[in-house]
Structure formats: C-alpha cells, structure tokens
Amino acid sequence: GGVEKMRMCDLSCLDMIAVTSIFAVYFLPSFIAFSRQHKNKIAIFLLNLLLGWTVLGWVGSLVWSVTR
Fold first, then answer.
1. d(CA 28, CA 37)
2. What is the CB neighbour count within 10 angstroms for residue 28?
3. For the segment 31-55, what is each residue's pLDDT rounded down to a tens digit?
C-alpha cells in the first residue's frame, strides 16, 4: 500500500527533477543570452532550440550568448 505509493512518488519526483535539469542545461545558452540582454537573443534562442541537440549547435549558441 503506502510504501509502494511513496516509492512511485519518489521516482516520479526524481524523474521531474531530471527532466527539469536536462531542459535547464539544454537551454542554458538561451538563458544566458536573455539575462545579458544580448542583441541577438532571439537568434541565439532559435539556434539553441533547433540545433542545440547537436553538440556543435549547443556549443555555438553558448559561445555566441557570452560574446558581445
């Protein structure tokens, strides 16, 4: 009864934390660009959204987000 429900909740809570963490890391370049009010923040977000799944796209958007 109660122990099984608790374990299921713990697992789903951990899953939610994991998913949230993955999204936070994935969109880190966008968060940086928006927080720095980068003049190309929309372009950086689109690059991050569309090509962030490739390592090169993610690194490129990260580098772009920290440059002036």
1. 14
2. 16
3. 999 999 999 999 999 999 999 999 9
pTM of the model: 0.80
With helix as H, strand as E and coil as C, how does 13-65 read? HHHHHHHHHHHHHHCHHHHHHHHCCCCCHHHHHHHHHHHCCCHHHHHHHHHHH
Local structure of 1: helix, strand or coil: coil
**pLDDT of 22-33, one tens digit each?**
999 999 999 999
